[in-house]
Amino acid sequence: MNNSFDYNMDSLLYQNRLLSEEIRRRVEQLAAINTVAATVSQSLDLEVTLETALDAVLGVIRVDSAGISLVNEEAGELVLRAQRGWRYDFVSEPMRIPLGQGMSGVAVRNDEVVITGDVADESNLAVPEFAREGVQAMALIPMHARGRVVGILSVMNHEPYEFTDEEITVLRAIADQVGVALDNASLYERMKEQSSRLEAVLDSSGDAIIATDNYGNISLINATAEKLFGLREEEIIGTPLRNAPLHPKLREGLRRAMREGEGHTVFEVTLNESHFLSVIVSQVYAPPSLDRKRTPEGWVMVIQDVTHLREAEQARVNFTRAAAHDLRNPLSVTLSALTMLKRDLADLSAENRELIELGIQALHRMQDLIDSLLNLEHIQSGVGLRYTEIDVRDLIERGVVDMHPAIQEAGQTLVLQVPKELPSIYGDMQWLYRALVNLLSNANKYTPSGGEITVRAYVQDEELYIEVADTGPGIPPEAQTRLFERFYRVPHQDRAIRGSGLGLAIVKSVVEQHGGRVFVQSKVGQGSTFGMVFPLSAPK
Ligand code: ADP
To answer: I need a labelling partner for 360 at 20 to 30 A (CA). Which of 4, 136, 255, 437 fits?
Structure first.
């Protein structure tokens, strides 16, 4: 009895020991899984996650080595990223296994755990060199993330080893934890890489870039902005733009552009007389959501220091102006000399008189050319434009009155389609007048006698249209795209019609300086319509 009691007692104690051993093991396993889980949720560092996972595996299963390989889908291979307990180094020059080959290939492809006791057999290995490692037992466990296999956890022993179902269950749990961690880490790495690439791009930009959130708080500035405005990123981030230590003119310009909301606003600011900045303010939108709504996320401002461009432009204008002036004087001296000669020399032969007349005409053309060049340079520089509120009817009347004699003389009819009430535009009267007269003068020059010239003005879609239409020869489509280029003249037109090819270039520059655009509609044999379009909501 005693004996049997002792025996039973022993057995009970033994059972108890086994049980507590079992419980201890279970607790260890759970702790291991928990450790990995905790690391997964805390660390975005790939290396830390891999090391923790390997520690956990070796802590809970009595094997001597383990490794983690990741699937690289683009390269079509499994790449060894970390290992513990191997005799040879297969990590520094990482072991790569083509997807679908060897046992790990099978594990990835079939998404199943592969257990083998015979790894020394080279025929089982996708990478034959691994045979020298002399592993006797191996379990390959696929790691999952977002429903696909992202890698393999390989657990090995250099002595024969039998993996129990229970161990495989624990390994599966760890493997999937690691899978999610890897996925997070690689997403994070990619994001970090993208953001540092973006940062590098932003910082290497020669333009200053400032971004704000929806509330106008500065969320980003690049290196050029720091340098240009003497700002420091760590001090300025989070500051409302209205408090930013920027030049008041620039700050006000930016805030005005932001109030205008949608789209892009382009403007130029002159700081301290001689410092020119060109600014583009754009509203930034979050990627469209499912309901396709675009939600504004803030603003980005690109600020370019254009001082050197303005200086160069000014130098060019000055040069052309000086050259033209220098040419102008001798030109007018020669012109008046020839005119006097023609008037005073009574006994000139008709032939000589005609020669002198030809000379006079040529000099006039040269004078026109010089004037046009000067005008073009001037308007393109945008320097010295005087903006006032322009009564559009008044503008059209001035042009029509001045061109009327020439139109009459050419035997053309003038039709006006200009409503009494028209919104005013903001612009430089002299230049707008010149642009309109250029269009009228072309219509006059190119339309044969008996033709009709129509001047129209109207409002459409928040834009003011001024059009000059004629019943002239029209312009072939291939030439229409080039009409507004400097010195371009339509080939095969009547060469007797004099011109420099600068008139329409001037029109385009004037209109663009006013924030508008030009267009032409024309059909050969029917006539042409040239239009100038001005935005009515243009910033003043
Ligand atoms: P130009 O001094 O030669 O008239 P523009 O720049 O004003 O220079 O015009 C460029 C060319 O466009 C002209 O040479 C002519 O070939 C063509 N063109 C301009 N206006 C008209 C028009 N109303 N009808 C036909 N052709 C025109």
So the answer is: 437
Residue 1 has pLDDT above 60, yes or no: no
The parent domain of residue 218 ranges over: 207-305
Beta strand extents in 391-505 (DSSP E only): 413-417, 425-427, 452-460, 463-470
Tell me, in angstroms, the distance from the centre of ligand 1 to residue 471's CA.
14
483 within ligand 1 shell (Cβ under 6 A): yes
Which residue puts its alpha carbon closest to atom 14 of ligand 1?
A: 489
Residues 28 and 141 in one domain: yes
Q: Which residue has the CA at smallest separation from atom 8 of ligand 1?
A: 501
Long-range contacts, 216-224 (Cβ 8 Å, 24+): 216/240, 216/241, 216/242, 216/255, 216/258, 216/299, 217/241, 218/244, 219/298
Whether 415 and 452 have beta carbons less than 8 Å apart is answered as yes
pTM of the model: 0.46
Ligand 1 site, residue 117, Cβ cutoff 6 A:
no
Residue 292's pLDDT is 66
Least confident of 68-82, 197-211, 275-289: 275-289
Same domain flag for 181 and 319:
no
Query: Is residue 230 assigned to a domain?
Result: yes
Question: pLDDT tens digits for 191-217?
Answer: 888 888 888 888 888 889 999 998 999
State the total domains in the chain: 4
Q: Do residue 99 and residue 168 come from a single domain?
A: yes
